[in-house]
Amino acid sequence: CDQFEEAPTILSIGLPHSNLQGTIPTQLGWLISLTNIDLSMNNLRGTLPTEIVQLPNLITLNLGNNNLDGTLPTIYYTTYYFMGWDTPTFASTNLQYLNLASNRFQGTIHDSLLQQPTATLLWLDLSKNALYGTIPIPFLYSMPNIDYFDVSYNMFEGSVPAQLGDLRELHGLFLDHNEFMGTVPPKLTREHLKIVQFFVQHNFLSGTIPAAIADLRYLRSLFVDGNRFTGTIPEAICKLDLNEEFFETTVTDFDHKVVNIPVNNTGPRNGCTTIACPAATVGKEGLYPCYPCHDRDLNPYIGQNDKCFHLNDGAILEVLYTNTNGPNWKMGSNAGWGITKVHHCNYAGITCNGAGHVVNITLSGINLLGEVPPELGFMQHLEILDLSDNMLTGYLPSDLRFAPLEYLDVSGNAIRGFVPPMLCLTSGINGNGADGTSTCDVIACSEGHWSPIGRATTPEEPVQYECIPCYEGSSPFLGSKTCNDTLYKYMMHQYDIWHELHRVFFGIFFSVFFVCGMPVLYRKYEFVRLVVDQMLCREWFTGKKSKKRLKKPKFLKKRNKSKLDGSGGGEEEEEGEGILEIADDGSHAEEHEEDLEDNPDVGGMSTSSKRTNAKKKDGDWLSEEDPPLYVPEIM
Asked: Among candidates 312, 311, 315, which has minimal Cα distance to 323?
């Protein structure tokens, strides 16, 4: 609490490891002076209250290791929605520490998760949730001084944002155990960066390890295992002796036997294997200790951490059958699949060459369900692969680039993401690269695009197709043959509803305005008119205007002259009517008229100054040097 206040205000709530259960009370949002909240390591459930998110002075929010669910805070629309205004989440511009790790949050990260910009944020931990989608670029730019960025153990997809390289104060970058694809952006290897820990293991990254990583002067930990990297670890990186603190003096091998390991590089472990096992080997965790593959197995990747790939065509086809719900394929009883005594060359949809090697797999429209097995890329003689018009999901494996494919068709499925860059660069697939240029559209149309065959054609093909954009969000898969307008029509229907509500809302608003507001405005108009008339009367007294009777507003009743001088007489009352309205010093209108008749040049400075000075006391009459006249409202 703040003890310097007369009524102490609560500034911090710290209850970690307190065995708290239930939901987070929304009433905490009433404590607008709160700067620190730590409810980590409890058993809290429910969603994150908006009232907490909107605390204006929040500096630290730690809700890690609970059972919170729902989505992350997103933009919510206020009454200003129809004007195009919205309210961002995490309203505090002083937020420095945000930990929502190890919960059950779902959904995506919105561009405006943070107040724009939140230059004070130093620590962000969203790890170990069920978040998905891409990392929004505006979200990254909203925290330019971030020091610790952890989104590991989620389901984020797409490419690794190159804009992470713009975060010059970043020390810890943890992107591991997600579904990122593509290569490591060169922007993340700039020597001015302060990255100390760089974790990208267990994704779908491909290509090679950039040698420029060695230029990161502060780098101490680098993990790249469990991806699709090829080549070797650059020697300059191996010399950095990274990941030393993660190794113990003993480890267990695959047979659960304890093996003594020297701590320094004089033994079997070296600076390369501490980062990732080399190709043709495999490690329990993708790094030291590493074991060679068997003679008939293959592993072209570095940092492989589960097993080597089989080179036997029959074994690979068995993996395809098992991983894609083979027993429910729409094939005849004589298809041969799943029958032990049937040779794989006799399977339906399989064609072999004279040497018994599979050269053609055509399994179009037979209800394949699951993901495309990466093992298909290690069939050394495969030329045609047609898996179109099924129910395949997941991502298109970059491993297919190792097979000598001439034709690849994965259209008409529900494959997400994008075509791996290394697969796009593989020449020969669907004629790609024949004219010296390679394009991913020849492999499959990207998300949000379509063509009648699910891909673009090369100039050499007899019929020409290109990938055509769909409506936004109407084609979320690779290789779409049509645009799924169902989602678009639903969105348009929702828009029509909002548009109709918008029209009705403003119709009611203007109706109420004209019925109730116009009389009020009219009364204000009459009052302003009265004030203007009084000002004209003042000018008349000073001789600036000719004598002229001023009409009294209708809503003001005529004053009874008898109250002023005790006499009646309707004609005299009407003659003095306009002057009596401004005569507030106790004198009669007739007295003013006599003064004017006796002194026709009464517009001199003496009379004018006297009247002005008298009215200044009450604030009614003002000179030209005074501020403008204040006119009070009369409702």
From this structure: 315
Closest by CA position to 503, among listed 511, 491, 492: 511
CA 30/CA 576 separation, integer angstroms: 62
Alpha-carbon separation of residue 159 from 63, 214, 290, 457, 581 (angstroms): 29, 22, 29, 25, 80
Cβ neighbours for 597, distance < 8 A, ≥ 6 positions apart: none
Residue 308 to residue 302: CA distance in whole angstroms = 11
523 Cβ partners below 8 Å, 6+ apart? 555, 634, 635
User: CA–CA separation, 366 vs 449, rounded Å?
Assistant: 24
Number of Cβ within a 10 Å radius of residue 562: 11
Selection from 594, 574, 592, 595 nearest residue 583 by Cα: 592
Cα separation, 99 vs 122, whole angstroms: 11
69, exposed or middle or buried, with CB in 10 Å at 0-12, 13-18, 19+?
A: middle
Place of tokens 């004219």: 435
Query: What are the pLDDT digits (tens) for 319-361?
Result: 999 999 999 999 877 688 988 888 999 999 999 999 999 999 9
In whole angstroms, what is the distance from residue 607 CA to residue 592 CA? 12
Q: What is the tens place of the pLDDT at every residue in 572-610?
A: 444 444 433 444 444 444 444 444 445 544 444 443 343
Q: What is the DSSP letter of 18?
A: S
